[in-house]
Amino acid sequence: MNADLGRQNFDPIIFQVLWSRLINIVDEMAVTLEKTAFSHVVRDNHDYACALYDSRGEMLVQATTSTPGQLGSMTRFMRDLLEEYPTETLEPGDILITNDPWLGSGHTPDIYITTPVFQDDRLVGFACNSAHHVDIGGRIASPEAREVYEEGIILPIAKLYSRGVPNQDIFKIIERNVRVSDKVIGDLRAQIAANHVGHESMCQLMRERDLHTLTELSSQILDQTEASLRAAIAEVPDGVFTHRMELEDKDQDGNPIVINTSVEIKGDTVHVDYTGSSDQVDLPINCVFNITFAYTMFALKCLLRPHIPNNAGCFRPIQLSAPEGSILNAKFPVAVWWRTDVVYYLTEAIFGALVKCIPEKVMAASGTYPLWLTIFSGEFQDGRPYVLHFNASGGQGARSYMDGPSTMVFPGNIANTPIE
């Protein structure tokens, strides 16, 4: 068996066992995050994503319960993280943190925690997760915000732990800037615990299978995923398919927000272009490129290859263009907290374009903005602060062959808040 594992291509059965094992590991990370979280946003709403990477920063697998926005941003996020902290600067026991919207998934509440995975002092990969925190300071989800500075503290990519030693200054800064520090710090520690599970399980897998690197396995996983997606694209007729949407949201001058979409199918590649969409606005609904990338890729994968596991190979055949300064590629420091108010419509925009060539695969629109989110904050009678998010959703659009499920949060893939 070890001879097989040392080759460029694994035996198909061993390959499937290893790939499935990695998915199981990342799902264990997700369960750990849920079970140890302090806030209902992570524990009950499942507003998070978990992923494993190889030593090059290529995303291998993601948890099956991940949200598309955070997950889809993770591929680009790791590239930026390694530019800031190249692999040679990382050591065993390091843990990195950031919530910069332009590096992560587009707004400040989503904090990314990344743990380099070392085996015998050799960097072999990364465990990473992102979680939406119940509070990050600032004006909580204010519709009146005009700059990102109003939307809570922004943490650049930094070491939260260095060689196993916590950076207490970062913890103190976070505690001082949020209203419910017990829940925020508790969720941070849950994120750290989830990555620890990923780290230990990945190392255990490599020891059991006598793997000294994940590079060969990673290459085969990504190549097979890419080939599967390219085959699906090749089945779609070549052409340029367009769709224009005017949203209920208005810009600061009262004009409707426009999403202009062009999808070009050429052989086994796709190019999505949002040229002609509205400019960024003086409202907190702007989308950074990462979150636009995430929901564009999600929509295409739903149509073309919904059942293959998500990894970096899914993104190779797809190119994306969104003019800088537009509402789908907003420039710092515009307000971005409510970016889902726009970006959730990208699935409908992609579907609206491709219904012209593959109508049997396209799902109907889910109506208006598919997620109702109410946020309460204040003080208990004893003066303690509280922050509560309440998610509710109306349902999902129908397919050509069946009704859409009710109360499904699409495309966010999070859970409704239990009334209890």
Low-confidence segments: 1-7
- How do the SSEs run, as a string of H and E? HHHEEHEEEEEHHHEEEHEHHEE
Quaternary structure of the protein:
single chain
Q: What global shape is seen?
A: globular
- Order of strands across the biggest sheet? 2-1-5-4-3-6-7
DSSP, total strands: 13
Please tally the helical runs, counting DSSP H or I stretches of 4 or more residues: 10
State the end-to-end distance: 52 Å
> What can be said about the biggest beta sheet?
7 strands, antiparallel
Helix content: 25-40%
Strand fraction band? 15-25%
Radius of gyration from the CA trace? 21 Å
Kindly name the structural category.
alpha+beta
Average the pLDDT over all residues and give the rounded result. Answer: 92
